Amino acid sequence: MAVTNGVKEKTVVKTMSKADALLSPDLLRKMNAYWRAANYLSVGQIYLYDNPLLKRPLKLSDVKPLVVGHWGTTPGQNFIYVHLNRVIKKYDLNMFYIAGPGHGGPALVGNVYLEGTYSEVYPNITQDEPGMQKLFKQFSFPGGISSHVAPTTPGSIHEGGELGYSLSHAFGAVFDNPDLIVACVIGDGEAETGPLATAWQSNKLLNAVADGAVLPILHLNGYKISNPTVLARIEHEELEQFLRGCGWTPYFVEGDDPEVMHKLMADTLDQAIEDIQQIQNNARNEKEIARARWPMIVLRSPKGWTGPKVVDGLPVEGTFRAHQVPLLVDGDHPEHVQQLEGWMKSYKAEELFDERGRLIPELAELAPEGDRRMGANPHTNGGNLLRDLRMPDFRVHAVQVPSPGAVDGQDTLVLGKFLRDVTLMNQHNFRIFGPDETLSNLLGSVFEATNRQWDARQIKNDEFLAPTGRVVDSMLSEHQCEGWLEGYLLTGRHGLFNSYEAFIRIVDSMFSQHAKWLKVTLELPWRRKIASLNYLLASHVWQQDHNGFTHQDPGFLDHVINKKADIVRVYLPPDANCLLSVVDHCLRSRHYVNVVVAGKHALPQWLTMEAAVTHCTEGIGIWKWASNDQGAEPDVIMACCGDTPTLEILAAVSILREHLPDLKIRVVNVVDLMKLQSESEHPHGLNDQDYDSLFTKDKHIIFGFHGYPWLIHRLTYRRQNRNLHVRGYKEEGTITTAFDMRVQNDLDRFHLVQDVVDRVPQLGAKGAYLKQMVKDKLIEHKRYIDEHGQDLPEIRNWKWKIQL
């Protein structure tokens, strides 16, 4: 039985009466016809290779040799789309559609085709019979388009291939967009994912004055691939209590009779839009400060609605069998050709399209016009709206470095002041996201310029909470931070995600999907470039002296570099001045994923600002002030990438220079990790000549790396010099001192000195003596840390000794 807002029987009668007034018989007829047209196009996309208007009897040769697609969610999404078109026109709404259910591609492609957007973007897909045939053929076909709502679909900012991110994308889109409404359709299977289940709480961070609105539409069609869905099987009262408990006002539209459902949906959508407008008006004009209970809609309709009811004696419509292709049409099932033809003819295409295959005018006029069409909404191609950030001069925050290693500094603490200035200068175009780690990562200076956005209850002793703010870090969910930022970027703004390094792995898959989106849109000339997705990874693997093994994982770098070289960039600045230069560059960039790894604990500072800018611009270079191979071939290369490896490599160099003054050492520091890769594999990669000029063709390279050692081997495997020996994290850790962490993973100065002595044969007795000395130091260190729980005093008080 149909219900609205959780009230049964009597309310339904009232609603139907009101809906009768909303939808005249003529408008109801037209909307139902438009829905039939969208359903017809959807079935045609899944099945047909030819004969798009069925002007002749359907034959097996008219059907694609391999039928691939998903029907189950499609008719429900078509139903929603035609009703959203109506309220857009009635209320002159700035609205677009996010399709959460995984493979609703036929619905969205069909609807943007009906409204004309698709043919404007793809002129070869004309609004006539030949264009319809091309539309059908390309769907899930080699060289065509995918079966979900992909970047190729006008009006989409959300790749529907992986489930769980629709609602967080929707909220990210409406931040700082006060006149925008995002209708977010959530599949009941998708609602079972962790990210989506958490995303219901995003309404506690939405500001009704400065932000737009999200209208969630939970589409309950009852089934996933072969199982029922949880929310469809719990009692109505329990579902309503759950949604109300998440802070929503749910309105229910339930049933299977098209005429009744059209009327209920029209009334319910009007109510939801008027609720949104009332909430915004109260906040903006009446200055009402109470947190809003935003409306949402629960649409319960049969899976595979209007499709085959029974196939081969088994029920299909309203069951899991409608999820993908409800009819298998091939040579082994010739009777299914006629059943497919009967299914498609049930939509009466001859009443919907003229002889040329064009949607008849009385139906075409139901769609909004121009930018009000959801497929043409400017926010769905955010690069068109993108404005450059107003950038402060990062140099004013420079750490004064009188000589290399002479002063200590906390890199992210310094960066926080720069981000504060960026925030001040970009009040509606830049946000910082993070899972309650902005202060922990020492970016607290940003709170001199802004608050955390928070619309839930506040109590005494809360810090930096306000209904509006540029920092969104009040939910402990990496998934939400990632989804919000992606939605913010995709609609034409800028941002940064700061996180603990180990736990950014939580969004590995979300990063992958966004990187894929960037890769595909780069190949679409009508898609405009958006601002880069910027990660700042702090509290990293080498700085977990109180959190221990659980907080130690640098593997996000390995994951990132698997993606297309046109998209990914990885930076490991060695000190604060380099970090400032790198982040300035990343915030200005377009259409990349930039990963920056930086520490927050006090470490030696190496480069003046001028030197840092030069070094970061090059991305890699010889540190001549730390080297003594000028005018000669080096005996060994000491290379480093990352703040902690840089410290240990230079400490090892200090020991070597003191005890083996004749040893010719070249120090190479890497900021841009992708410099190590060949230029044929990455646009930042060095050519072989430049690489060899740094690393030589045959000298031993002792490389200290921030992450897993084999990543460096992987990046350099094409190079001629195979004498590469990498020290990095090897999955050893516990709660211990920062230096002992390095010892446990052999990335400490003593092991690095041993590596040199083992590989430079001409060192003789001096080398043997030095090797024994550092071996004794390691034994002494272990004894000392077991007894005192801290490092040897000479380690704790170490300063860079060699200053040239």
What does this entry look like structurally?
The structure is a single chain. The protein is α/β, with parallel strands linked by helices. Helix content is 37%, strand content 13%. The strands form six sheets. A six-stranded parallel beta sheet has the order 12-9-13-14-16-15, sandwiched between helices. The chain has a five-stranded parallel beta sheet with strand order 1-2-3-5-4, sandwiched between helices. A five-stranded mixed beta sheet has the order 18-20-19-21-22, sandwiched between helices. Helix 1 packs across helix 11, helix 3 packs parallel to helix 4 and helix 3 crosses helix 11. The longest helix is centred in the middle third of the chain and has 27 residues.
The shape is elongated
* Poorly predicted parts: 1-14
Separation of the first and last Cα atoms: 84 Å
- Summing up helix and strand content along with how strands pair, one would put the structural category as alpha/beta
Query: Helix count, per DSSP?
Result: 26
Give the overall pLDDT as a whole number. Answer: 94
Helix content: 25-40%
Radius of gyration: 31 Å
Q: Biggest sheet: strands side by side, in what order?
A: 12-9-13-14-16-15
Largest sheet geometry: 6 strands, parallel
Beta content = 5-15%
